[in-house]
Amino acid sequence: MLYTCGHKIPDSDSIISAIAMAYLQNALGTEAKAVRQGDVNPETQFILEKFNLDAPELKTSFAGCDLFMTDYNNYTEAPDDLKEANIVGIVDHHKLGGLVTSAPLDCWIRAVGCTNTIIKEMFDYYEIEIPKDIAGAMMCAILSDTVIFKSPTCTKIDTKVTKALAKIAGIEDFKAIGLEMFKVKSQVEGVPFRDLVKRDFKNFEMNGNKIGIGQLEVVDLAIFDNFKDDLIADIKKLKSEEGYETVLLILTDIMAMGSQILVASSSVDVVEKAWNIKVENDQFWLKGCLSRKKQVIPFLEPAYS
Ligand code: MG
Ligand code: MG
Ligand code: MG
């Protein structure tokens, strides 16, 4: 059995890519099963319900298993026992993260906006038809990762593939579905602060420092007005509880096209140096910032070296 599985703290791309990849592998004659490393978030739940797909089963240990990694290629987001698994393949759109394998593997890594974009190209390459429901879910994953094409990570290939998937799924107004999805994502009231901080949270190691960066993408930042201070207090608590050098929480306004970044750091000067800004009241505004991958990490990492 080949397991297809996305990263820890799964996002929509990571869950849907595992489902699409399992379908493709089965169609190619390899018995495959999609699994997930963590809870399904509300946005992904919306996509699964919309296209009548089941959430993959939870699986966190892969020792002795064949694994096709989707939407990540580093150890920090991988299962803890990845070194004891047999990595059969990787499909991903992130920077390389220092992975070592013991055997040759099938590697599909491209600088596009979403892993599902690459998987669509794999279906085309192998001349396998994509079922309607899976195509619709893949389309949503691309709209999520590219913030409905607004993110600087979005390429012409992503928009082209999205349109092709919408056609297969029989969807005309895909941007409307994208917006509906981001509205679901924007429902943050009443959710425990730590759950919000960790909803889309990634760990990084920058020059020996433990860094955690969360991101919440919403249609209007005003929804945080009543509890932004609570979120700041929570990332400070998280920082001391789990020994982080810096924890950032990126509050992205997809309409205003920018992010309010909340800061808990032992080296606020490094954060200020990264963007040449001033951190006031544990936060700063970053105009135009939509992408953690392209507009946050590449600035913070060199500031630490
Ligand atoms: Mg992802
Ligand atoms: Mg992705
Ligand atoms: Mg994302």
Strand-helix topology:
Elements: E1 2-5, H1 12-27, E2 32-36, H2 42-50, E3 57-58, E4 66-70, E5 86-92, E6 106-109, H3 115-125, H4 132-145, H5 156-169, H6 174-185, H7 193-197, E7 201-206, E8 209-218, H8 228-242, E9 246-253, E10 258-265, H9 268-275, E11 283-287, H10 292-295, H11 297-304
Parallel strand pairs: 1-2, 1-4, 2-3, 4-5, 5-6, 8-9
Antiparallel strand pairs: 7-8, 9-10, 10-11
Helix pairs in contact: 1-3, 1-4, 2-4, 2-6, 3-4, 4-5, 4-6, 9-11
Bound molecules: magnesium ion (3 copies).
One magnesium ion binds at residues 11, 145.
The total beta strand count reads 11
The count of helical stretches stands at 11
Low-confidence stretches: none
**CATH level 3 topology of the largest domain:** inorganic pyrophosphatase (n-terminal core)
| Whole-number count of domains | 2
Q: What CATH architecture of the largest domain would you give?
A: Alpha-Beta Complex
Mean pLDDT: 97
Which homologous superfamily in CATH is the superfamily of the largest domain? inorganic pyrophosphatase (n-terminal core)
CATH class descriptor of the largest domain = Alpha Beta
Bound small-molecule species: magnesium ion
For the sheet with most strands, the description reads:
6 strands, parallel
Distance between the termini: 43 Å
> DSSP strand (E) fraction?
15-25%
Rounded to the nearest angstrom, the radius of gyration is 19 Å
